[in-house]
Structures
1.
Amino acid sequence: MIVAANFKMNKTRKETEEYLKELKTIDFQDVKVAVFPPFTALMEDELIGAQNAYPAKNGAYTGEIGLEQLDEFGIKRVLLGHSERRHILNETQEFIAKKFSFYKECGFEIYYCVGEPLEVRKKGINAVIDYIKTQFEGIDLEYENLVVAYEPVWAIGTGVSAGRDEIKETHQSIRELTKRPILYGGSVKLNNIGEILKIPNVDGVLVGSASLDVEVFKEMINKAKEIKK
Ligand code: PEP
């Protein structure tokens, strides 16, 4: 079971340090925990991953960070393809696939996000899977360090998670494409994490807003510890 926190553009370096200290007061047992803070809070810690990275070691890419900056902190984990980067920062599938290939070559653990907008979901599961397949273009679904995160765009940050049947059928369909772990993300909270983690082919969760409170996130990890699959 994987429980990952995406801070997005929240928390300072100091707050992240305090968060990690508090987080580590609990025993994670078999749960694998990952934390994705903003760039300014990257630090040497086995839980940390980057929310994004440019596909180059270094160079003339203003505003970006690359392999050299991640190496400084021994970071070997990156989140790619998040819907906020696809939709707000206009990242194309081609560019995301380039990042994927680069960080795959570097042996990184890649948390790779996919998910459909509401108008696609309204058309039904076949349309959803066709859409997700376009987000898998150029992505090696057999990569040993891949973790897929299914995050319907309409469920991210809205307080409305996808329903059990929607998660079940979508994860089942993604499972037919990859054997790698599949996380669900989109308004996962303390009051729904238990039910979500019990759904077949859900191997964990990617948590945004609810992860910002370390006490809540600790409780979420404790709930994940109870689920045996
Ligand atoms: C996310 O952005 O990855 C996410 C799942 O956000 P939230 O939990 O806030 O919906």
2.
Amino acid sequence: MPFQKLKPEIKSIIENENLSIDHRLSQVCEILKENIPYYDWVGFYFKNGDKNELKLRSFAGEPTDHIIIPFGKGICGQVAVSNKNFVVPDVKTQNNYIACSINVKAEIVVPLFLNDENIGQIDIDSHTADPFSKEDEEFLEWVNARVAEVLKV
Ligand code: SME
């Protein structure tokens, strides 16, 4: 798994003050999608102002219709409420799921905390069945913590 190898590269993108935050987030999505074979769509959603909904901020992969997701809806909306990682080995088993593409077999969503508040999440779709492990969760928690550090300042 290239997680350890990717960390320094991701850190330097996130900390690159010459790029806007949106540009940095897009580059992180690209690097994850390009380097991890079973990451087919990678996006960051954030709480949309004071509304109880998520808004897509950056992504890599096919464009999605689901720019806005109400809290509670789909895997993403459930994580906005639960504050917990949600790993779905097989999306067909989920009733509360928003399909972005018929090719998606599995999904992982990891919340992003700023000062202990769930302000957003990273969402990854995979065309591979059951690809995610504890290592993915830990790695994505690490990515989100690095993003939170630059959102803080
Ligand atoms: N599948 C997600 C919707 C977002 S797309 O994967 C880009 C969900 O059920 O919340």
3.
Amino acid sequence: MSLNKRFFVTTPIYYVNDLPHIGHTYTTVAADVVSRWRRLMGDDVLFLTGTDEHGAKILEAAAGKKKDVREYCDEIAAGFKNAWKNMGISYDIFIRTTDLLHEDAVRKFTGGLNEKKELNFSKYEGRYCIQCEKYLTETELSDGLCPDHKTKPVVQSEENYFFNLSKYRDKLLEIIQDTCHPQHFEILPAERKNEITGKLKKGLDDISISRAEMPWGIPLPFDPGQTVYVWVDALINYISAVGYGLPGQKNLNYAFSDWWPADVHIIGKDILWFHCVIWPALLLASGLPLPKKIFAHGYFTVNGQKMSKTVGNVIRPAELIDIFGADASRFLLLAAFPFGSDGDISLDDFREKYNAYLADNIGNLISRTTNMVEKYLGGRLTVPAGWTDSNLQEIRQLFSEAAEGLESLSFEKTIRSIISMSTFCNQYIDREEPWRLASSVAPSDRQKLQKILYDVILVLKHITLLLAPLMPETSAKIWGLLDEKEEMAAVIRGMRDKPGLSLPSGAEIKKSPPLFPKQ
Ligand code: ME8
């Protein structure tokens, strides 16, 4: 298993034009699972998320609610924080682009670009989609409309500062394609990398990085009549949050250069271009290191349609929590389809998976096993005479596959392995029928009974450790039933040196309350 001492993971910072929905929740839960796993493995993790608050889209949203824009942003940012608290998101920093330290960093960054002669002032006319917060080219339009928002872009003609993006095309291509290049960064999954290199090969235009008539944003330090383009403002969050531009380090344990570059930016594929081309080019122009990895997960529809207020199919995280609870919602989001692929989400499908994976499989296993230990063994588990863990080889293999999934963001692999372990135990119990052995007084039957329950509780211990990042509260509850004296993190780290787990002899196992009531 590869390990970093420090691990810096980010989500996009979300627009505050509305409260979070399950699209934002999906990315944030994924980053949380990675962060929790890394912490359990002993890494010093920094998990950054936040909100993107400037620009025309936010001004429009505030005006639509007849609210002062700053108050409006405060309200929605608080809504995001509250949603993440309810979902058990363990972020370390929640950045807002209206934070003064961020605004200072943006001034320093754009001022630096100007000093390095990376900017030109010139006239531009284009079609701007406010919902995308970007200019659309003729080829991107569909029947004159933005293909994503089905709205007519606004024709804008103004004098702006342009960043020499085209100058970086060859260098970016080389960096992305040559895996041995010292500045190489990974783009995952592979098809996203192909998408980026394919587009880069077609050419690259310079981009306007300021707006002449945008009152809600950060004025350029060298020309306060112009406001920093909202995407440039937003991307800088990844470095302003870890102290870029600060003289010393105040709020973090390490200096800027200790945290930056990020180990992974987790994003949705909709914002791939900004993260894989514009952001690296801006960093190159500023002489800063590039992120190590960009992972773009897929986009999902809800009941087969794009999620939108007009269609009326927007699902909020609170709705999921109301039905399934926070832990199961986290699990179900990541179990829906492979991370990196597109997919569809529906409450019916969630209910089906909840019952199949959680209520009938894992939940059933925990309740029947702890019940049997109490009923047949008086709640006390002893190591059966002559017990070896040789028949748990398969479990060890599944455990390492699951752990690998957590490191490579293949959550589906982790979930599949956990379910296999649980199915393995349920089948083992069905086959061996411990209830029959329990009614026998023959010593060999007693021994066999002890062995079966010992084996199963041991596998349950493996499952509990793997559930820790996915379902932190539930996993802690199960851990509490197993009479385990050590912290989960210590046990996981111990497994790095010596794979395999054991249980103390005479462990007192408590009967589990229902963890996943059937839906
Ligand atoms: O783009 N499926 O913010 P945003 C999967 N502020 N993921 C989804 C999704 C869906 N249907 N809908 C949203 C912005 N997401 C900028 C980012 S970063 C410097 C600035 C998730 O509020 C996914 O992570 O539009 C996507 O990339 C993000 O929300 C877009 O959030």
4.
Amino acid sequence: MSASTTSSNNLISYPIRSAPTSDDIQSVLAVYDYSSDSTNSAAKRFVRSEQNCDYTLFIAQTQTQGRGRKGNVWSSELGGLYMSIILPCVCDISNASLYSTAAGVCVQKALCSFLPTCRIKWPNDMLVSNKKLCGLMCELVCDPSGRYHVIIGIGVNVNSSFYDSPLRDTATSIRDELGHEMTITDVCKAIVHELMLLPLLIADNDSLIQAYTNASCIVGKDVKLLAAGNVKAHGKAVGFDNLGRVLIQTEIDIKSFDYGEISLRLEG
Ligand code: ATP
């Protein structure tokens, strides 16, 4: 894939391809590690040192410093899938939050092939039976030539078990839900397959937001939004705007919230 010379907001963007081909899928280069500090950190180091980094996939069986959002720890025991993929940033940098939206749609679809009731809790958690099965986190990073890339980091509880864990009331795994183990590679392949469609999703904003809305478990529900532990808003989640911000019907009006520092909790 060649880069175009078009630039906007200092972003040298790649042309949007008309359709992902099987070549794209085969061209994903996987870098396996038994243990990584964090696959997102490994991917970040790679982007910073290498211009030709797109479609490199970092996979680990455990992480010593698995990260969630806002400095949260992602528990990364053996049995989980920890992966990060580097994609070219094909949209304007000011819209890069849409990568998180689109990655959510791709990952939810992939996980639904194992657990059909999997839904997205805005912005980036995949829930089954109201418990977290998977988390994802996107980071925007520049390569040495100044070109932006998106790193999509995904942690899936595949064969992990939380029966004896402090997370037992809030976390689940494919194995805990199905009652039998799943091949971690199969889960990884299903996710990568869906992620190859991400550039197409990003290119059609209406379809993307519709797909995200359909995959969401919060629309129509009463929620509260927290920032630094304080309640910022209460209301009913009514949908998402064209940047993937959540729309909350409060007593006064409909407000939109960026996921930046905000955490959403279902009421009741
Ligand atoms: P937000 O709703 O703002 O995203 P969050 O609490 O879901 O907040 P994340 O950064 O998305 O935060 O995820 C990290 C949190 O998820 C941890 O603080 C912990 O509560 C929980 N967690 C950590 N590891 C796992 C895991 N393997 N499976 C399920 N949940 C986990």
